[in-house]
Amino acid sequence: MTEQDGAPQSDFIREIIENDLKTGKHGGIATRFPPEPNGYLHIGHAKSVCLNFGIAAQYNGTCNLRMDDTDPAGESLEFVESIQNDIRWLGFDWEDRLFFASDYFEQLYQFAVTLIKKGKAYVCDLNADEIRTYRGTLTEPGKNSPHRDRPVEENIDLFARMRAGEFEDGTHVLRAKIDMASPNITLRDPVVYRIKRSGHYRIGDGWVIYPMYDFAHCLSDSIEKITHSICTLEFENNRPLYDWFVNELIEGPRPRQIEFARLNLSYTMLSKRRLIELVEGRLVGGWDDPRMPTVAGMRRRGYTPEAIREFCARIGVAKNDNLVDIALLEHCVRDDLNERAPRAMAVLRPLKVIIDNYPEEQVEEIDCPIHPQKPEMGTRKVPFSRIIYIENDDFMENPPKKYKRLGPGREVRLRNSYVIRLDSTKKNESTGEVMELHCTYDPDTRNAAPSDGRKVEGVIHWVSAEHAIPATVRLYDRLFKVADPAGADAEFATLLNPESLETIHGCYVESSLASAQPEDRYQFERLGYFCADRKDTSPARPVFNRIVSLRDSWAKIAK
RNA sequence: UGGGAGAUCGUUCAACGGCAGGACAACGGACUCUGACUCCGUGAAUCGAGGUUCAAAUCCUCGUCUCCCAGCCA
Questions:
Q1: Residue A36 known to be catalytic
Q2: Are A476 and A446 contained in the same domain?
Q3: For residue A128, what is the domain's CATH number?
């Protein structure tokens, strides 16, 4: 991990914080991660989680988890729970500081009353369309609402009656009285409270009025004594409003909003709306589909929290719009798994090999290293016998020049065991397809080079036909065909990669994998990293997800 | 179009007036019982035009391009 083996992380936000610490502006640092519980967390949220919790840890501060549940539409307990699971899984801890904006509703209401009393807010009877019209445009100033100058007492009364449920949805709103001519549209008397009778997942029908983000967020930060309120770039326009509310209503130290660029990842889509579409449109299997860029999806795919954290550290934090190459994420995953994943052999597309000169009943238990570079990880027993399966594409009838594997008359090393030579093939008479390979083995080559000094370059993996365990393997590829699906103007369903999932039945894995538990990760040698699916795998029918392939320089040569 | 923000190798992040650097990607090679890993090496950038300065990616001026804002979403 970056935090462990190198310099502490640094970026423009940490510079601001260090400066604030140095000048004594704050005694301690308090951040928060404020998701709205209306969807699952994705890798973009992970960036923010790592930033907020990472900063708290680095500067000995705290990071709160706050559900920003101010709009009941779409919010649910399922999401509250998934968010907590995902953050914990990523390796962060909010201790006893789980908060809900909805718990602040009474305080927020009182803040609103204070605003009214200061003459800085009013109840407006305009409907949504009228408010939009009155707001003006980017180039033209807005017009004042006819209700803008209502007396304070009337506003207080009306606002109380809004709360009491006397008005229909959409008939009244509370607005801040700022400046209808502001070049910053955010400041043109923004709506502060609206009436919504949809029912809230936590508080039921207790409230029929709900505060807007701009009002609730900055005040929630203030209530929690957040020092640095870190959010994404699209809130830059809202910062003056953030400061306006805080300045009107909060005494003493105030939180400071800082914006950074959200993550964009090539070949994926990170907008919550799009992810909801994928899930609800059944374009994927669910929020935790291994192709999804959600934390739950990546977990199910087999990504490690360490790899995700490392990725978040490496992409950095800045204010530039970006499109990070997904190859970097894959690199982080390989880098982590290469260190820790036990090795195993699995054959995805089996081709039967009969070793004619190997004794019929003989079985050898071969000790294979669990990790060739880490002898301390020990060994595992892998049975070897006369009939084995090898990978179908480790044989070619007419191999090209640089091909190192099996072909007629060629020799190849069976990983961790003998050198074999291909003598003949048996074909399906009607299709011409090669069904069986007949080989002879060189008994002197187990754990040894051929005694006559001949070089055997190719090494292939295998499993013993009699001992191997049937398994299902799912191969995953990028969900989208194009690098920047969010930027493409095509219908987004047409951008999906039809080959993002390939399920292969009839695979064989070595017998030691009988004990594989859900979420166990392995390197299937020469193939990639695989993870026993946390939901679908069973001892009777193991199911492995390909997390990421190994780098494949042969694929480039072959092209 | 008003306002806000941003432009540095293919991508991403640095360089805070003093030799433009790292990572990923790419390419070449070495090693190899994983065509993996590792190691060595190569190519690759300051949006443009002026100005200030001994010295500019950095400061100034004028342009250009990109992103965000006209939800009773966040």
A1: yes
A2: no
A3: 3.40.50.620
Q: Which of A330, A362, A546, A553 has its CA nearest to residue A467?
A: A362
Query: Residue A3: what pLDDT?
Result: 40
pLDDT of A5 > 60? The answer is no
Q: Are residues A494 and A361 in the same domain?
A: no
Strand B and chain A: which residues 212-231 have CB closer than 7 Å?
212-214, 216-217
Give the range of the structural domain holding residue A529, as residue numbers without chain letter.
272-343+471-558
Residue A130 falls in the annotated catalytic set: no
Instruction: Tell whether A127 and A39 lie within a shared domain.
Output: yes
| Statement: the CB of A139 is under 7 Å from strand B | yes
CA-to-CA separations, A226 to A35, A62, A254, A317, A392, in angstroms, rounded: 15, 9, 8, 20, 59
Q: How many domains does chain A have?
A: 3
Q: Which residue has the tokens 């990472």?
A: A54
> In this structure, is residue A266 part of a structural domain?
no
**Nucleotide closest to residue A486 (CA–C1'):** B67
pLDDT at A1: 36
pLDDT at A558: 85
Percent of chain A past pLDDT 90, that is, above it, reads 94
Any residues with CB less than 8 A from the CB of A15 and at least 6 apart, and which?
none
ipTM of the complex: 0.97
Locus of tokens 């009939």: A387
Mean pLDDT of chain A: 96
Q: Which is the catalytic residue, given A262, A314, A349, A352? A: A262
Q: Is A262 a catalytic residue?
A: yes
Among A209, A236, A260, the domain-final residue is A260
